[in-house]
Amino acid sequence: MSNFTKRFIISLLAFPLIYILLYQKYLFNILIIITFLFCIYEWVNLFSKKGLLFIFGLIILSIFLISILRIYNFSEFNLKFLWLILITWLTDIGGYIFGKLFGGPKLIKISPNKTWSGLVGSIILSQFAFLIFFLDPNYKFSISILFAQFILSIAGQVGDILMSYVKRINNKKDTSNFIPGHGGFLDRVDGLIWIIIFGNFFI
Length: 203
Prior knowledge:
Oligomer: single chain
Number of helices: 8
Radius of gyration: 17 Å
């Protein structure tokens, strides 16, 4: 089975996860905690030498857990939580599409797949995330949300680059092979971690 096929099959799991997210709050909270435990496990196994960076990562993951549980359980139908998820997805998709279409100079050496065009694409596409708020008939658009999305998109990309750095200094390609075609849990949520943490300031 090709890597693309594996990634496609795993991606289909997003649909039942969205249903659980919206309508099975208790179950989704359990999934959040399970994901956190997998992330801790991967982080511990990523390092051969446990130094300050290792401890810093444990602190960040703990803040991430507290933040995501707080934001997700903020209301019965939490559009703000979905907004942060959508920013993460659009940032990843925008970076991938623009990077493939336009290529160009590399953004940073420690993450060779990152390009300046991908950075721009991530920011542009993430600006459409606010559209989810129009599901709320009482929503009133404010220009400040565009600034928030800009900051959060940048935070997500910084998180992605930081994880690339950690993997590189530990001579690892992926944080694990738990998710076929995708690597580990930390490979999937590296950007989301920072978007959720910084999202606390905008919610």
